[in-house]
Amino acid sequence: MARGKQPGKAQRAPKVHRAVLTRTVDDFEAAFWPDEQPVDNAVVMTMGALHEGHAALIRAARKQVGRDGRVAVTVFVNPLQFGAGEDLERYPRTLDEDLRLAEENGADVVFAPSVDEVYPNGEPQVRLAAGPMGERFEGATRPGHFDGVLTVVAKLLHITDPDFAFFGEKDAQQLALVRRMVADLDFDVEVVGVPTVREEDGLARSSRNRYLGEEERTRALALSRALLAGRDVAAQGPGAVREAAAAVLDTAEGVELDYLALIDPHDFTEAPDDFRGEAVLAVAAKVGPTRLIDNVHVICR
Question: Does 85 score more than 80 pLDDT?
Fold first, then answer.
């Protein structure tokens, strides 16, 4: 049983939040569980380079557990989820800024372990397999990616022992797979999705946006425009959604499309032409050397 699920919560004065930076599992546990008071707790898992999208997750976690609950933010660039030629080495690492943003938005503890702390015996020989659901779309482009994601999420769930785990809806396939893992393997945690946070011009917030030059950033707006064009005609059915979104991307300069797909969110298969109900319209593309993903929920009628 998770600590936060014990009965009889004590009534205490509201806390002033000062995020404690921890680097080891032992230090995290000492900071996150300073006493045996049975309060709700939540975790927000990140790879750092925090932005307003992460801030929204932390705020949602704080709201969920209340002023007296505990919120942990993990900052770990997980090597298992990067493939050959991807941006593991150059992925932005901004821990001082991350600590400040986490604290300002209500985190109690930031857990920023080393690779050796998370994988003390070296690269793990036993890993979780994402299965067929993790081999489509993002998984097809990045083989093994979701195996690495689920392996580290499972480890961090064991370490942080949360009542609630918060993930962004921008990574729709990741969110779906984490939910499926939790259900299939009986993790005692509620997974909460938080809507995508966008810039004023519609670009989805992402740590990788900082790779974009000024011209590339302008070109990247074609992704959100395509998704909104598809969503606007969802009442006409899946075919209209695909056509409207594709029409925007077909004329977009400097956008190298990986996939544009209308997806059944239950199993992450391509939605058939007679599909009715809620679907995920997802896109992945390179803008210059930077690969971006985005999605919106649509209701096909």
Answer: yes
Contact 294, 223 (CB under 8 A): yes
The crossing angle, in degrees rounded to 10, of helices 95-104 and 52-65 is 40
C-alpha–C-alpha distance, residues 149 and 153, integer Å? 6
Annotation says 51 is catalytic? no
Q: What phi and psi values does residue 157 have, to the nearest 5 degrees?
A: -65, -40
* C-alpha–C-alpha distance, residues 129 and 134, integer Å: 8
The single residue of 17, 51, 54, 145 carrying the catalytic annotation is: 54
- What are the pLDDT digits (tens) for 89-122? 999 999 999 999 999 999 999 999 999 999 999 9
Q: Are 271 and 262 in contact (CB under 8 A)?
A: yes
Whole-model pTM: value is 0.92
Work out the angle at residue 38's Cα, subtended by the Cα atoms of residues 36 and 42, and round it to the nearest 5 degrees.
110
List, in sequence order, every beta strand (DSSP E) within the chain. 20-22, 41-46, 70-75, 109-111, 164-168, 190-194, 255-264, 269-270, 277-287, 290-300
Pick from 41, 42, 39: which is nearest to 11 by CA?
Answer: 39
Angle of CA points 207, 209, 212, to nearest 5°: 145
Name residue 204's beta-bridge partners: 198
